[in-house]
């Protein structure tokens, strides 16, 4: 016994030593403190998912001679804890850091972690962006924390071949005409289900997401950031609309294996696509399904899912240059380039009017004019106020309760009660 | 001996003038060497343990006495986090889940490991090294890979297990929707990964049992079954307890498997069917930035529970070995 413990302790010490060495090696990079006013050798950019910055960064390197390192994290779920660690320890954050709308607010709640960009970026750019998007980049104390990158304007992706088999129209305008409102969407789904016996939409949480962001009013929080999850009309509307569609749902919640596998299997015929989702739909469906998908308007018009800002952490050693880089990455030309590369939808008004953007068609999605479709829907987005813990309330209270109902684990009333109770604990900040 | 050594006559040749001081210095060095080098030799462990073990623990304890925002303000609130913890339903839910999964994984796993170790210990077995290596392989596979693959096997719509169950006429099971099914699925991953490891430890314990005991028993006419019960098992007790304690610590800290099983959802299921204590700690301490102090309290609660369970184990062994 004593031998084994000693041995395991030795193993633990060795392990700790290895980690320590690894940690020291990792820290080594951060130790170069710049002299005053010195031009940085390198700027670091942190993004999650796909921002389409690969080419832009090269352009910037050529223009300025400053090296730019692009650090990509695949999913927001992994990205956020890393960012938290950087901020909590005051070390390791990139000079330019992307913030998504769902997490922006909790980081805004502690504005001292971020550099105020107001004096650092050109003053005239404030009018270049969608006004509501620009305003959301400001902290409660008036500091400008982020410059807008993209919005997640909603559309519906649908399978033409499956629609045809069910006797539904397949032309994108005719399909959009099927569902001027959510009721129409439900009826189309029921028709599809009757004809094929299969589910129509991926999940009711996807529906709720669409409805939630169309309301144009406060969601889980009011303007003073009090949690109002149980009384908010927008939340109730999303809940009621979504739960009513349980009969046409494939019960494959977004990002689950059932969901990503469902694209190839044709488990559902329609899903909600913000512009950045197109690439994911294409990847999940595979080359074999190329040309079978198309893009139509979202029921109820407008709606938004995701979208980000670029911010500069207070700990950055080169806030001025970092702000310049952020400004470059979000200007009209860059946003059009990024859209063409990976699909994030511009927020720069000039980019939205750009010819190259408007005439862009997506080959995978039956050559749908995605530039035009999404560009038009941007105007219909209703700016909403997301509270500090919006993401936690939505992910850990609202959607789980809805799924519990969808899977038959709880009645509609019990699920609502689960949500309102959990929202209170998740929403505290 | 020592007396003759101290009264030994001085060497006849006259020493060089600087020799005494030199010798004294060497003597001093030897004394220091004897007295302090052992401490130096073990110092790295204590330094590293201090930096990576003790300091984080004390820091966590300090955090748990605060209303601590990970990226914002900290306010001292005494034991409020702990009193809140006792009344927190989701904490108790996580505790029950953890023990449920622990029971489902540890008990079958150790029985299986005991069976396999006994099998591998048979003198008649051929290709011993091959089997011993083979049984350890699952442990080498990265835990994330295991969780992802098993997550697919336990998928609702296209999972292998549901397909197999379908062949014998059982309806599709939504593994993630109930407690028993999600616990079973997660315990399966743990069992797959750790049975081989425990088998090897038990096997090592079995090989340390003197062979003559078995020979004597065989001469007295004891069957292999009886030999197993009356020689192998009692002699294996210390090893067995070691394995139990290791499994306890592992079981209480279960995190990656249930997290990946639920597609990375930190609440572990729509109604927290399989959220473990470690996940709850992460939810409160890291996911929710503003409740880091509460998360630290959960971490200390986990620590206390592990100490408590290990103490019970220890007492049971002491009593059994008397």
Automatic annotation (TrEMBL), chain A:
Residues 1-25 form the signal peptide. The keyword Signal applies. Gene3D superfamilies: Periplasmic binding protein-like II (3.40.190.10). Keywords: Signal. It holds the Pfam family SBP_bac_8. This is Sugar ABC transporter substrate-binding protein. It comes from Micromonospora andamanensis. The lineage of its organism: Bacteria, Bacillati, Actinomycetota, Actinomycetes, Micromonosporales.
UniProtKB/TrEMBL annotation, chain B:
It is found in: Cell membrane. The chain crosses the membrane at residues 39-58, 94-117, 129-154, 235-255, 297-317. Residues 9-19 have a biased composition (Pro residues). Residues 95-315 form the ABC transmembrane type-1 domain. Residues 1-22 are annotated as: Disordered. InterPro entries: ABC_transporter_permease, MetI-like, MetI-like_sf. Its main location: membrane. This is ABC transporter permease. PROSITE patterns: ABC_TM1. The lineage of its organism: Bacteria, Bacillati, Actinomycetota, Actinomycetes, Micromonosporales. It is a multi-pass membrane protein. Keywords: Cell membrane, Membrane, Transmembrane, Transmembrane helix, Transport. Pfam families: BPD_transp_1. Belongs to the binding-protein-dependent transport system permease family.
């Amino acid at each position: 016994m004593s031998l084994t413990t000693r041995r395991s302790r030795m193993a633990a010490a060795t392990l700790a030593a290895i980690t320590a060495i690894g940690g020291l090696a990792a820290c080594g990079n951060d130790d170069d403190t710049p002299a005053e006013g010195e031009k940085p050798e390198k700027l670091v950019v942190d993004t999650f998912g796909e921002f389409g910055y690969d080419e832009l960064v090269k352009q910037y390197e050529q223009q300025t001679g400053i090296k730019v390192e692009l650090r990509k994290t695949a999913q927001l779920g992994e990205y956020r804890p890393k960012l938290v660690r950087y901020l909590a320890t005051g070390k390791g954050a990139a000079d330019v850091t992307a913030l998504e709308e769902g997490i922006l607010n909790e980081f805004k709640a502690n504005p001292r972690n971020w550099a105020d960009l107001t004096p650092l970026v050109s003053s005239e750019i404030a009018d270049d962006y969608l006004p509501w998007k620009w305003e959301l980049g400001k902290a409660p104390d008036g500091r400008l924390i982020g410059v807008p990158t993209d919005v997640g304007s909603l559309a519906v992706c649908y399978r033409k071949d499956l629609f045809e088999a069910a006797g539904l129209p397949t032309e994108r305008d005719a399909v959009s005409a099927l569902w001027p409102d959510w009721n129409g969407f439900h009826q189309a789904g029921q028709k599809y289900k009757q004809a094929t016996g299969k589910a129509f939409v991926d999940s009711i949480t996807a529906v709720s997401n669409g409805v939630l962001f169309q309301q144009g009013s406060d969601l889980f929080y009011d303007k003073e950031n009090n949690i109002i999850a149980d009384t908010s009309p927008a939340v109730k509307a999303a809940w009621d609309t979504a739960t009513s569609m349980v009969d046409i749902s494939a019960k494959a919640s977004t990002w689950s294996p059932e969901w990503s596998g469902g694209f190839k299997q044709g488990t559902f015929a329609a899903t909600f696509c913000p512009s950045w989702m197109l690439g994911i739909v294409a990847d999940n469906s595979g080359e074999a399904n190329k040309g079978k998908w198309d893009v139509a308007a979202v029921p109820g018009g407008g709606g938004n899912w995701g979208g980000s800002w670029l911010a500069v952490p207070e700990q950055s050693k080169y806030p001025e240059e970092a702000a310049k880089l952020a400004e470059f990455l979000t200007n009209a030309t860059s946003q059009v380039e990024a859209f063409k590369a990976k699909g994030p939808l511009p927020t720069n008004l000039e980019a939205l009017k750009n010819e190259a953007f408007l005439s862009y068609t997506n080959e995978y999605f039956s050559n749908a004019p995605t530039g035009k479709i999404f560009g038009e829907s941007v105007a219909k987005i209703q700016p909403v106020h997301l509270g500090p813990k919006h993401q936690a309330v939505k992910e850990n209270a609202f959607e789980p309760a809805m799924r519990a109902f969808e899977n038959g684990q709880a009645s509609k009333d019990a699920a609502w009660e689960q949500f309102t109770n959990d929202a209170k604990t998740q929403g505290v900040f | 001996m020592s007396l003759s050594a101290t009264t030994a006559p001085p060497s006849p040749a006259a020493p060089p003038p600087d020799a005494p001081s030199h010798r004294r210095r060497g003597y001093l060095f030897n004394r220091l060497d004897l007295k302090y080098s052992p401490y130096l030799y073990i110092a790295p462990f204590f330094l590293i343990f201090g930096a990576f073990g003790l300091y984080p623990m004390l820091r966590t304890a300090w955090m748990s006495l605060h209303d601590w925002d990970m990226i914002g303000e900290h306010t001292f609130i005494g034991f409020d986090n702990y009193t809140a913890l006792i009344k927190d339903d989701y904490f108790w839910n996580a505790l029950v889940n953890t023990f449920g999964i622990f029971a489902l994984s540890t008990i079958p796993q150790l029985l299986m490991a005991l069976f396999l170790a006994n099998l591998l210990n048979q003198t008649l077995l051929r290709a011993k090294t091959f089997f011993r290596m083979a049984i350890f392989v699952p442990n080498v596979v990265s835990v994330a890979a295991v969780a992802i693959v098993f997550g697919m096997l336990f998928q609702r719509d296209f999972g292998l297990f549901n397909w197999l169950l379908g062949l014998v006429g059982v309806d599709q099971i939504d593994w993630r929707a109930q407690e028993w099914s999600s616990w079973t699925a997660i315990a399966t991953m743990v069992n797959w990964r750790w049975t081989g490891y425990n088998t090897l430890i038990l096997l090592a314990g079995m090989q340390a049992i003197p062979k003559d005991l078995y020979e004597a028993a065989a001469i007295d006419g004891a069957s292999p079954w009886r030999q197993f019960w009356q020689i192998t098992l009692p002699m294996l007790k210390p090893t067995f307890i070691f394995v139990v304690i290791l499994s306890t610590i592992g079981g209480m800290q279960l995190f990656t498997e249930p997290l990946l099983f639920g597609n990375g959802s930190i609440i572990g299921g729509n109604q927290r069917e399989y959220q473990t204590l470690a996940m709850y700690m992460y939810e409160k301490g890291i996911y929710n930035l503003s409740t880091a102090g509460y998360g630290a309290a959960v971490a200390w609660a986990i620590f206390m529970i592990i100490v408590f369970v290990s103490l019970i184990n220890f007492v049971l062994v002491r009593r059994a070995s008397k």
